[in-house]
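MPN domain-containing protein, pasting as requested.
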Amino acid sequence: MATKYTITAPAYIKLFFHLAKHPHQRVNGVLIGKETPDGGVEATDAIPLLHHWTSLSPMMEIGLDLAGQHADSLGLQVVGYYQACERAEDTSLFPVGEKIATRIKQGFNKAVAFVLDASQIGAESAALVPYTSATAANASWRTSTTTPKPFTTGSPYQLSPNTLPAKAVSLVREQKLHLKFGDFDDHLEDVAIDWLRNKACVPTEL
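Structure tokens follow.
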């Protein structure tokens, strides 16, 4: 049976804001959460890392370590990775992304990776392409082959609630909350930016 993955509101809204703030750059981050009693995985939050990266740089390593420490402090784990590409139609998981996802999987065997499909934003779609790997060592990451289609009824990939895509678009277009969002890159330029929590941009009702 396929592992069930659920992305909650704070996690989805934050990764969506990351893309919206830097629509023409590569962005990446990690998902933190926990394994559920039924063996599924629940991503309860997202921690944004960088928006101008090309390799596993020292800053990337530091960001990953700090994100892991933050998850530990909350009694959670780093359970996944996300990225978006410069081109809206590109949904490939870059080699750097594969390396980071593999590193996460070595610490959490059910880790998953998602690539944002910017071409689907605004179409009431989750706009996420999931990648999984069967093994932690020298992992080979492949797009999900499960049916039905990810983030549709009956799929092991779900949003909670399923109205999140429309909500995220509204928060960007009407309230411009993504402009308050900050990642680790932003924090390096302004240490006052709370990139680990981003409380200023996430509505309390989520």
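Note for the archive: The chain has five helices and eight strands.
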